[in-house]
Amino acid sequence: MISVIYNNKSMKKLVIVFLFISQLSFSQSVNRQYVGLSIGASLPMSDFKKAVLSDSTSGFAKTGIALSFDYAYRFTHNFGMQLIINYSGNSLNDGSYKDQLEAVNPDYGISVESTDNWTSGGLFLGPYLTFPLTSKLSLDVRALAGYFGSYSPRVLIRTTKIEEPSVKGESYIERARANGFGYLLGTGFKYRVKSYYVLLFGDYVSSNLEFKDAVGWDLDHKPYSTSFSQKISYMSITIGVGYIL
């Protein structure tokens, strides 16, 4: 009788040890990290999209391209950290800029040509949560913050007096650079295919920047220097591939 009790206790201990080892082995075999590369559209929002000449907060930005490099490490079943390096390129709305310049200068025909876009990029770090929906599909929610920088467009404006076509002028607006704090809020899906994820994400990126020493030449070919504030905000919709490490 004593031998049977002893054997039962021993079996229980062996089962507990086996379950512990199995759980430990399973947790170590879970793929906790991946790197990803995505491309998609950058959709300007708020002041960045606004195209009102009389409003100095207007960015006149058009839909452009978005790129994103992601690294993610998961500490637990649902929680992890992400590092994101992203890029956005948004052209200037030359047509709207031209129309509004002509509206306030009715005696002139005006052309607007932007030779460089709004170009922005950031380095963000922060937590994310992942929620498995099926054995292969999961939903991620992330909130990151960090460094953000941007270059303003380079613009050439040509004018011609309607009643005196020989009276012409040119004005240049050079590129300016600014950097500061920015943040990224996003959500998306990961679908696993063997050692890869198919990634589909939507991210809101925002930063309030001060562009200093923005230089140019006015219509009288006189140089000038100024400063301006611009809120850069856009929604990026990207699709890509992640490699599970």
Pick out its properties.
alpha+beta; disordered N terminus; 2 domains; 8-stranded antiparallel β-barrel; 3 helices; 245 residues; Porin
Give a written overview of the molecule.
The protein has 3 helices and 11 strands; from the N terminus they run H-E-H-E-E-H-E-E-E-E-E-E-E-E. It is an alpha+beta fold. The chain folds into 2 domains: 30 residues; 213 residues, Beta Barrel (Porin). An 8-stranded antiparallel barrel has the order 1-2-3-5-6-9-10-11. A hairpin with a 2-residue loop joins strand 9 and strand 10. The protein is elongated and about 70 Å long.
Note the topology:
Layout: H1 2-29, E1 33-44, H2 46-49, E2 64-74, E3 79-90, H3 94-104, E4 108-116, E5 118-132, E6 137-151, E7 154-161, E8 168-173, E9 177-193, E10 196-217, E11 223-244
Antiparallel strand pairs: 1-2, 1-11, 2-3, 3-5, 4-7, 5-6, 6-9, 7-8, 8-10, 9-10, 10-11
